Amino acid sequence: MSHHPAIRTEGLSPTYTGEREVEALKDVTIDFDRNRLTAIIGPSGCGKSTLLKSLNRLHEIQSNVEIEGEVYVGDEPLYSTDRPLPEIRKHIGYVPQKPTPLPLSVYENVAYGPKIHGDHTDEELDAIVENCLRKVNLWEEVEDRLDASGAQLSMGQIQRLCLARALAVDPDVLLCDEVTSALDPVSAETVEETLASLKEEYTIVMVTHSMEQAKRLADEVVFLYLGELVEANDTRSFFEDPSDERTREFVSGHDTVEFDAGERRRDEAEPTTSDD
C-alpha cells in the first residue's frame, strides 16, 4: 500500500497452541500507511484483533501464542530485538474495545505514561495533559475537574480519556480495537470525529465490525477472512470495485450463511482467549 509505511508485517503467522493448535493468521504481509487511518474488517473470528495486538506484541500477555514472521516499525523489527517491551510499546499506542480508566484522577490517567517513560517537570506534565485532552476534544469538558476520578466520567468521555492516555507518550502508531462499539451513537460520533482529526498527526490502525464506519473514517481497508489477508485497498476502490470475489460477497452481504458457517467452524477451534 505504501512505499514508506509507518508499520508493516512480513509473513506474520501467530499460532495459538494447546489442546488444538490454531493458526490465527496465515502469512500476512501488509503495509500500514503513515498518517492514514486503516480499517481492518472481516467476519467474527477472522483474526482482526489478533492482527492488531500483534502490532505491539500485546498478545504476549498469553503464554500460548507462538509467532512466525516479523513486524517492522519504520525499519526497526518488533520481535527480533533486544529492546525492552515497554520501550517498544511507547511507540505504538493501544486503545481497547472497553473504555477502562486507571483508578486515578483524570489528570493522572493522562500523566501516567509520561511519568513512567520520562523525567518531566510539573509544568511539562501540565502541558502534556492539557495538550492530549485538547487533541481528543475533552479538555473543555474536564478542565475544572482534573482531580476527579476518571471513572466518574461518562462512557464516551472515558473512551476519549483512554485515547488521550495513549497519546501522552507520543506514539507513532495508534491501534484502536472497536473503540466505539460500547458507546451510544452521540458519543460514538464524537470519538469518530476525534479519530478523523488525529490521523493528520498519527498513523491509526482500527478494527471495526461496521462497514459503514470504515466507509466514513478509513483511508485504507484491510479485509481478513479465516486468518488470510484477502484484500487491502483504498476505501473507495475496496467498496466500489473490490478485486476479490470474497470481498464482493462480504461487502454486498451475499452468502452470509456460508461465511457464518465457516466462522463457526473456526471459532470452535479457536481458544476463548482470542477476542476476535
Automatic annotation (TrEMBL):
PROSITE patterns, alphabetized = ABC_TRANSPORTER_2
Origin: domain of life: Archaea
CDD domains given for it?
Answer: ABC_PstB_phosphate_transporter
Q: Where is the ABC transporter domain?
A: 7-251
Which InterPro entries does the UniProt entry name for this protein?
Answer: AAA+_ATPase (IPR003593), ABC_transporter-like_ATP-bd (IPR003439), P-loop_NTPase (IPR027417), PstB-like (IPR005670)
Show the Pfam families listed in the entry: ABC_tran
* Basic and acidic residues bias (residue ranges): 240-269
In this chain, the stretch annotated as Disordered covers 240-276
| Gene Ontology terms for molecular function | ATP binding
Give the keywords, sorted.
ATP-binding, Cell membrane, Membrane, Nucleotide-binding
Q: Which protein are we looking at?
A: Phosphate ABC transporter ATP-binding protein
